[in-house]
Automatic annotation (TrEMBL):
Organism: Helianthus annuus (Common sunflower)
Entry keyword annotation includes Signal: yes
Name recorded for this polypeptide: Putative thaumatin
SUPFAM superfamilies associated with the record: Osmotin, thaumatin-like protein (SSF49870)
Residues that span the membrane, as ranges: none
Length: 233
């Protein structure tokens, strides 16, 4: 759907893929005075997006059934994280937990809680300063992996000049995850640092590539950051 350019000056396209289909997340940002994120679920299953950031948006988690969408607003200047929770069970009062990506709040809303590893996280920095907007985005596997995520900006004016390619991970790393890194019961893949906790597998000055790091890199070569900026129209 073509965004209304009178109110939306950029669009980030966020895609989660799974065995059951694909989940598409649309991110319009930033607007004249606020940022709106529209989440569209094209999966064949329900996903529970979790949201954290500074400052916190008014919505920090919700249920999104297959084929439906929901929008929420973020502050004009926002540093935030968004991830997909799976296998969630909530009662009528919104209390419960999720198999992957649980934020520890015990509720549908994360309320500032962070995602429990292993989980794939999309990260955003949106800042407006005078007549310039600066947007940076990346998909992080530092907390492990639970779902494929890619981020693609659409109709972001600096991209017309510099280009803003997709970033993220479109591969299903769960299918390639070694048994020793696999989340108990499946559905997620830990990093070797989370499992072993040794300098060999954790980033430091002596870090050298291992078979595990090569696996993550080859499956998700575009899970890095990109920074763009430009004048507002």
């Amino acid at each position: 759907m073509k965004p209304n350019m009178a109110f939306i000056q950029s669009l980030l396209f966020f895609v989660l893929l799974s065995n059951g289909g694909s989940c598409k997340y649309l991110f319009p940002a930033p607007g004249a005075s606020r940022n709106t994120i529209t989440v569209v679920n094209d999966c064949g299953f329900t996903v529970w997006p979790g949201i954290s950031g500074s400052p916190l948006p008014s919505i920090t988690g919700f249920e999104l059934t297959a084929g439906n969408s929901r929008s929420f607003e973020t502050p004009e200047n926002w540093s935030g994280r968004l991830w997909g929770r799976t296998g969630c069970t909530f009662n009528g009062l919104g209390h419960g937990s999720c198999k992957t990506g649980d934020c520890g709040s015990g509720e549908m809303e994360c309320n500032g809680g962070s995602a429990t590893p292993p989980v794939t996280i999309a990260q955003f920095e949106i800042h407006k300063k005078f007549s310039e907007v600066v947007v940076s985005y990346d998909v992080s596997l530092m907390d492990g992996y639970n779902l494929p995520i890619t981020v693609e900006p659409i109709d972001l004016s600096p991209c017309f000049l510099y280009g803003c390619p997709k970033r993220g991970c479109s591969s299903d790393l769960n299918k390639q995850c070694p048994k020793e890194l696999m989340l108990k019961g499946g559905g997620g893949c830990h990093t070797p640092c989370q499992v072993f906790g040794t300098p060999k597998y954790c980033c430091n000055k002596a870090f050298e590539p291992t078979s595990y790091s090569r696996l993550f890199t080859s499956a998700c070569p575009r899970s890095d950051s990109l920074r763009v900026s430009g004048a507002l129209p």
